[in-house]
């Protein structure tokens, strides 16, 4: 299907149980349906447009201000709820112009679940349906809230969580084993045994009143749960659309370690961030990134934006704003790719707002500190190439659990280790290396091998 807009053909592939009505615009985004990355509310709730030129630490200017510069608009959207500084405070050099009519009601913007832990988001994003393992997972995750209780009183609540998880595992173990994919059944069974033993060990930690020992053990057990759940996935669950099937595709998950050299913090010279990429929900986007990592595209690249709302990089030296494919000598771009919760395959080439899915939830929401997504040109949904960003704010800063970025940018992973250190990364810090440490076998059509 296609919808024409100002001479541009917007295409998407959609396998849905609910209708989607494409909207045709003369100007791609009409003022009354502007995306929040160009239009947003000031403290007085007047919609304005911010137009800036970007420059990095080397003084380069002239790159387009899109979400490639989305952090400013996100900050202003936050100001709508929190009473944060107004437009003039965030954009002192901006040319602000009033726009009518106003944006749609913020309450109908894309919603996301109130889960902020990246590990939990990744577990719930797996394409599985096994109630028994989820009943083990939930009380283990609830330990985090139990530990918010002061002092040793927290351990009483933790003990209830542990007993609930242990009971769920004993009662549902046969159903969990039955849910394991046949090729992974032996491996999954071994991990399940470790989980069972670990729950007994956590019970002993609680009984000994060792509060400090709870969180590390909880993390270990949730890692086991995640491993068992991944072993329930049998193959890749859907077909990627024909026009993208020959691109680098991540058909599963992969883990990348990113080592960053921090210049101006003597207490934090080297940071290693662990990133989990989700190819089940964003195979084209994650595959493109893994392919670039294998090309060492990001090695030696500076952090180019770090303003308290996002950390961004991926803009190469020179006039190009993305990766130039040596085989074509052109910028390699990828489509906007969004997995809607409850659907079997992603939608491509259009935002959820453009599809009229204002209340749809995304499978990979912008809820967690360190959410990873692709930057793109504001008015070109399919213009992402190599520029990436990590979010530094959590969902509690958006109104009514509505994440204003959900459904507008392709999320394809989360930082799962040392994400708290991301706030210490500054412009000019250097990515020393990115390395795929697990899951490279899930990359299909790797172009880096063709390039040698």
From TrEMBL:
<dbReference type="InterPro" id="IPR023222">
    <property type="entry name" value="PsbQ-like_dom_sf"/>
</dbReference>
<feature type="domain" description="PPIase cyclophilin-type">
    <location>
        <begin position="275"/>
        <end position="452"/>
    </location>
</feature>
<dbReference type="Pfam" id="PF21329">
    <property type="entry name" value="CYP38_PsbQ-like"/>
</dbReference>
<keyword id="KW-0793">Thylakoid</keyword>
<dbReference type="InterPro" id="IPR029000">
    <property type="entry name" value="Cyclophilin-like_dom_sf"/>
</dbReference>
<keyword id="KW-0413">Isomerase</keyword>
<dbReference type="InterPro" id="IPR048563">
    <property type="entry name" value="CYP38_PsbQ-like"/>
</dbReference>
<dbReference type="InterPro" id="IPR044665">
    <property type="entry name" value="E_coli_cyclophilin_A-like"/>
</dbReference>
<dbReference type="Pfam" id="PF00160">
    <property type="entry name" value="Pro_isomerase"/>
</dbReference>
<dbReference type="InterPro" id="IPR002130">
    <property type="entry name" value="Cyclophilin-type_PPIase_dom"/>
</dbReference>
<dbReference type="GO" id="GO:0003755">
    <property type="term" value="F:peptidyl-prolyl cis-trans isomerase activity"/>
</dbReference>
<protein>
    <recommendedName>
        <fullName>peptidylprolyl isomerase</fullName>
        <ecNumber>5.2.1.8</ecNumber>
    </recommendedName>
</protein>
<keyword id="KW-0697">Rotamase</keyword>
């Amino acid at each position: 299907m296609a919808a024409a807009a100002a001479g541009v053909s917007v295409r998407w592939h959609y396998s849905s149980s609910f209708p989607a009505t494409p909207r045709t615009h003369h100007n791609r985004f009409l003022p009354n349906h502007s995306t929040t990355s160009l239009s947003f509310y000031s403290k007085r709730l007047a919609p304005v447009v911010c137009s800036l030129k970007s420059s990095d630490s080397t003084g380069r200017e002239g790159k387009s201000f899109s979400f490639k510069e989305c952090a400013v608009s996100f900050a202003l959207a936050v100001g709508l709820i929190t009473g944060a500084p107004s437009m003039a405070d965030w954009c002192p050099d901006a040319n602000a112009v009033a726009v009518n009519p106003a944006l749609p009601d913020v309450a109908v913007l894309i919603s996301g679940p109130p889960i902020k832990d990246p590990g939990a988001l990744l577990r719930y994003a797996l394409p599985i349906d096994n109630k028994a393992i989820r009943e083990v997972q939930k009380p283990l995750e609830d330990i985090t809230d139990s530990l918010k209780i002061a002092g040793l009183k927290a351990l009483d609540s933790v003990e209830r969580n542990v007993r609930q998880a242990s009971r769920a595992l004993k009662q549902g173990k046969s159903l969990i084993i039955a849910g394991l994919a046949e090729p992974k059944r032996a491996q999954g069974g071994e991990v399940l045994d470790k989980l069972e033993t670990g729950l007994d060990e956590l019970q002993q930690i609680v009984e000994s009143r060792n509060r400090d020992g709870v969180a590390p053990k909880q993390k270990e057990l949730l890692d086991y749960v995640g491993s068992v759940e991944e072993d329930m996935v049998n193959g890749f669950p859907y077909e990627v659309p024909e026009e993208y099937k020959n691109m680098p595709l991540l058909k599963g998950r992969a883990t990348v370690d990113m080592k960053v050299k921090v210049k101006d913090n003597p207490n934090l010279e080297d940071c290693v961030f662990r990133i989990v990429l989700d190819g089940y929900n964003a195979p084209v986007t994650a595959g493109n990134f893994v392919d670039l990592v294998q090309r060492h595209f990001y090695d030696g690249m500076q952090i180019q934006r770090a303003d308290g709302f996002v950390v961004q990089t991926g803009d190469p030296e020179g006039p190009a704003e993305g990766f130039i494919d040596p085989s074509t000598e052109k910028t390699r771009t990828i489509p906007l790719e969004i997995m809607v919760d409850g659907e079997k395959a992603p939608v491509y080439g259009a935002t959820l707002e453009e599809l009229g899915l204002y209340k749809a939830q995304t499978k990979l929401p912008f809820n967690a500190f360190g959410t990873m997504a692709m930057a793109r040109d504001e008015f070109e949904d399919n213009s992402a190439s190599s520029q990436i960003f990590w979010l530094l704010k959590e969902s509690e800063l958006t109104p009514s659990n509505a994440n204003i970025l959900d459904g507008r940018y392709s999320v394809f992973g989360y930082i799962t280790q040392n994400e708290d250190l991301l706030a210490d990364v500054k412009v000019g810090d250097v990515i020393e290396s990115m390395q795929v440490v697990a899951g490279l076998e899930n990359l299909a059509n790797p172009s880096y091998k063709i390039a040698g």
